[in-house]
Amino acid sequence: MADKKQIKLGMFLRPAGHHLAAWRHPNAQADAGVNIARFVEVAKIAERGCFDMLFSADSATANSVFDENGLRRMAYVAWIEPFTLLAALASVTQHIGLVCTASTTFEEPFSLARKFASLDHVSHGRAGWNLVTSGNHTAALNFSRDEHMAKDQRYIRAREFAEVVMGLWDSWDDDAFERNRESGIFFDPKKMHTLNHVGDHFKVKGPLNVARSPQGRPVLVQAGASDDGKQLAAETAEVVFTATPTIEEGRAFYSDLKSRMAAFGRAPDELKIMPGFFVTVGDTQAEAHEKREFLQRLIHPEVGIALLSQRMGLDLSDFDVDGPLPEVPQDKVISSRVTLLVDMARRENMTIHQLYTQIAGGRGHYDICGTPEHIADVMQEWFETGAADGFNVMPPVFPDSLSDFVDKVVPELQRRGLYRTRYEGTTLRENLGLSRPASRYV
Ligand SMILES: Cc1cc2nc3c(=O)[nH]c(=O)nc-3n(C[C@H](O)[C@H](O)[C@H](O)COP(=O)(O)O)c2cc1C
Q: Are 325 and 359 in contact (CB under 8 A)?
């Protein structure tokens, strides 16, 4: 089996679970967002399931929801800052990768490069950075701005940002630090490289004050599906997290993105595409559906509308929930995700209520509910017909839905030779089948 290409798996972290009403489930921990013991438990279950990585999304705002009635019912409103969380999880896990989202719109490249290189050291080579440009307007207000940067500008900044971070990660050769007690020489200055970057957005001298990290560079993940997003990913990303709600859209995204790579001298296999999969597992189809329905019944309309308004970037609280989605002005389309939701609502003639119920779990990601065999069949089809290299698994409720996946779906994938039975390597790169990049100076 060793030579056969296998499915890669990310475990998408979220406090009580991915379903909007997860925190109200009797088996969930309502305070999971600030409960480190629960995060540790979840990380260990994922590692037992040989997941490639834990993946954390992030946004730097609490009140991204328009109306207070909805906001007060929103469990995602406040939880531990993910970078700190992953650093803590590094010390209680041994194999699983630790991928965290950080925004090129709000961060500074030097401090970001420093943090991720440090996480790579702390975890002995398991760190990854999910580069996003952030679609959230209210986050801008927390960073001394009156409004969010325009999308094309965000991507221009992101490209330069990534270039600076990569440059800083090469500041030191692998063998720069002699630390020779006898001679008293700590490092070899010839093996230290000063970046001296001067660009349109950043002026960064360098070098980074962290030694080259175990993976050479932390794995570069990216999420962003517009044309600009795909161009940046084709050029720089090693993993792409995406939302493709049907296999056809999955295949179209996959072939589009992979075909852009040749222009940057990259082979398709240097980038792993991992769509989000919101997975509800049952021993029978009926049991899986009942689990799902149980959660759907826990959604209060106020929070359903709030979620949809947030996703659309448009306040929907004054519209009839049993009526259709209103027209979305073109200047309000903040991301590829809005287009995706509008298309889905129009295609399937959905009301506002139906649309929020639909996204309350998967939030526009592929939503699958069924037996382990059925789920494995679907994953196999996506994997073998060019729609995915792996999946970012989104369990509805922690820890139950993750345990279901690990105890039932993982063995089924292993039986089919589609998934590892033990970790192949010690670093995230090795497990993902990505090579360790050489420094630009060597
Ligand atoms: C699958 C996916 C996941 C994303 N996750 C985050 C996130 O965790 N935090 C964030 O600020 N933005 C996130 N974004 C937003 C992107 O960074 C980007 O700013 C936004 O979608 C607009 O770019 P796009 O139109 O290229 O997708 C995500 C986008 C996608 C498609």
A: no
Question: Which of 159, 278, 337 best tests ligand 1's pocket when mutated (most atoms within 8 Å of CB)?
Answer: 337
Amino acid 122: pLDDT: 98
Integer angstrom CA distances of residue 338 from 134, 280, 333, 416: 13, 25, 6, 37
Write out residues with Cβ below 6 Å of ligand 1.
57-59, 101, 103, 132-136, 223-226, 228-229, 241-243, 335-337
Tens of pLDDT, residue by residue over 351-409, are 999 999 988 888 889 999 999 999 999 999 999 999 999 999 999 999 999 999 999 99
Q: What is the pLDDT of residues 66-76, one digit of tens each?
A: 677 888 898 88
Q: Closest residue (by CA) to atom 2 of ligand 1?
A: 223
CA of 132 to the centre of ligand 1 (A): 6
pLDDT at position 336 over 80: no
Q: How far is the CA of 104 from the centre of ligand 1 (A)?
A: 11
310 vs 25, higher pLDDT: 25
pTM of the model: 0.94
Q: How far apart are CA 54 and CA 42, in angstroms?
A: 10
Who's near 261: CB < 8 A, 6+ residues apart? 234, 267, 268, 270, 271
**The CATH number of domain 8-287+364-432 is 3.40.50.150:** no
Work out the angle at residue 32's Cα, subtended by the Cα atoms of residues 28 and 35, and round it to the nearest 5 degrees: 135
Task: List the structure tokens of 33.
Answer: 């967002």
